[in-house]
Amino acid sequence: MIAALAAARTSVAAAAVVRASMRTLLATPTVAVTRPVTPAAAAMASSVRGYQVRASVKPRCEHCYVVVRKGRRYVLCKKSTRHKQRQG
């Protein structure tokens, strides 16, 4: 595109070159290149756990504690992250 602008001598011709190049850039389809997911990356993505959403939450062990944030009750655990729960 810069070489085409350098070749254009007048501002009208330069504007036409810019419009034409932008038109071709917008008209060409873009292809998303995806990388293959390695087994280690898939395991790491699945190991990130969210909250168990339940109607009633209860501490499951002696290390669990209840926190109220933004009107919701959460159960968090220092020992086991599998005990994380959210009410509602």
Polypeptide structure, described:
With 88 residues, the protein is an alpha+beta fold. It has a domain at 52-87. The protein has 3 helices and 4 strands; from the N terminus they run αααββββ. Strands 1-4-3-2 form a 4-stranded mixed beta sheet, with no helix packed on it. β2 and β3 (72-77) form a beta hairpin. The mean pLDDT is 79.
Jot down its keywords.
88 residues, Ribosomal protein, four-stranded mixed sheet, ribonucleoprotein, alpha+beta, transit peptide, elongated, ribosomal protein
Quick gist of this model?
With 88 residues, this protein is α+β, with helices and mostly antiparallel strands.
- Note the gap between the termini: 56 Å
Average residue-wise pLDDT: 79
Low-confidence stretches: none
The whole-angstrom Rg is 28 Å
Main sheet: which strands, in order across?
Answer: 1-4-3-2
Helix content: 25-40%
Q: Give the count of helical stretches.
A: 3
Percent strand: 15-25%
- What composes the largest sheet? 4 strands, mixed
Helices and strands in order, then pairings?
Blueprint lengths: L1 H6 L3 H17 L11 H9 L4 E3 L9 E6 L2 E6 L7 E3 L1
Parallel strand pairs: 1-4
Antiparallel strand pairs: 2-3, 3-4
